[in-house]
Design a protein that fits this description.
The protein is α/β, with parallel strands linked by helices and 330 residues long. The protein has helices spanning 19-35, 67-70, 93-102, 116-121, 137-143, 169-182, 184-194, 219-230, 238-245, 249-260, 264-281, 286-292, 298-309, 313-328, and strands at 7-12, 41-47, 51-54, 60-63, 65-66, 77-80, 108-112, 129-130, 148-149, 155-158, 161-164. It contains 14 helices and eleven strands. α1 (19-35) links the parallel β1 (7-12) and β2. The longest helix is centred in the last third of the chain and has 18 residues, at 264-281. The termini are far apart.
Length: 330
């Protein structure tokens, strides 16, 4: 019966594709098939040509169909997998034209990781809220100013458009699509089988070190910055730091902002949050971390940490502990 026909899911894999951007979402849909009375999805990998595609890791996968052959398919969901080189290499015009033709004919379309660059080149992301890998978010926004880039989102939904952040976020996106199609219970069983979060806590910036304070400015300022990094728990008032540089408080604050790009207070908070991350990853409790890293109390640490990382210190410590157990085989 037509109502039982499986939905065709197409993942577009281009040369140099990130393998997990392809295999991750497909495994989620495949696991959903096991949880349903009859298969809910038909899974296809589409390449520029039919046959072997070399991934960024060197492993090769096989495209079921070429882009031209895929024109004859009734595609329900189209996802473009990312390539590490995508932000640096202009997509081939034929790929852009194919996406521009095919995406509007699907029920929903989107991207995983830097696959967003291919959709953006086809004009399919203009005035839409999207996400991509945190490390590529600024470049996507700069290259395509009409695209509204959310650098922290794990995945986004904007009308028919769906986008996922970096790499493993493709699994989160696919799970959300399964929930859309088959409901909460089926999606929850899929998450249980794949040992993944049903709802991942926080955003993707908790995995980013991009906000870490960088040493900058003239040598006197750099010396002060190294002192702060080495002693994050010390009281670093602007007058004290200015005295270390042999400058007036006002001149030091103005010079620091001009040469480093942010205020001394903001830079110090960034250093302390980074120190707190390292301490939490080592298993220390938030109360210990707050005093050791220069925060007046755990609430002050919590506010700064959520502002910078997107999750609470307790949540971050719990995630780090879970990852440590997985790495050790516990």
């Amino acid at each position: 019966m037509a109502k039982n026909r499986p939905r065709t899911i197409v993942v577009v894999a281009l040369p140099g594709v990130q393998l997990l951007d392809v295999s991750g979402p497909l495994d989620v849909f495949a696991q959903a098939n096991f949880q349903l009375p009859s298969p809910g999805y038909r899974l296809l990998v589409v390449g520029q040509e039919r046959g072997l595609i070399q991934s960024s890791s060197g492993i090769r996968l096989v495209a079921d169909l070429s882009m031209e052959e895929a024109r004859r398919e009734k595609i329900d969901t189209l996802l473009v997998a990312g390539c590490p080189a995508a932000p640096d290499v202009a997509p081939e015009p034929l790929t852009v034209a194919w996406l521009r033709d095919i995406a509007p004919m699907t029920r929903r379309y989107g991207s995983v990781c830097t696959g967003a660059f291919f959709l953006a080149a086809a004009g399919l992301l203009n005035k839409r809220r999207v996400t991509t890998h945190w490390a590529a978010a600024e470049r996507l926004a700069a290259a395509y100013p009409q695209v509204m880039v959310d650098a922290d989102a794990i995945h986004t939904r904007d009308g028919r458009l769906r986008t996922a952040a970096g790499v493993t976020a493709g699994l989160d996106l696919a799970l959300a699509l399964v929930e859309e199609d088959h409901g909460h219970d089926v999606a929850l069983r899929v998450a249980d089988q794949l040992v993944m979060y049903f709802r991942r806590p926080g955003g993707q910036l908790q995995f980013s070190r991009a906000g870490n304070a960088a040493i900058a400015g003239r040598s006197a300022l750099q010396e002060v910055q190294r002192w702060i990094v080495a002693h994050p728990g010390v009281d670093h008032s602007v007058p004290q730091l200015a005295e270390r540089c042999g400058l007036s408080t006002r001149h030091f604050a103005r010079l620091f902002r001009h040469e480093v790009g942010i205020t001394p207070a903001a830079w110090i908070e960034s250093v302390r949050v980074n120190a707190a991350r390292q301490s939490l990853e080592a298993g220390h409790a938030p109360k210990q971390v707050a005093s050791a890293c220069g925060f007046s109390d755990p609430d002050n640490l919590r506010r700064a940490f959520v502002r910078a990382v997107g999750v609470t210190p307790a949540e971050y410590r719990k995630r780090s502990a879970s990852m440590g157990k997985a790495d050790s085989g516990a």
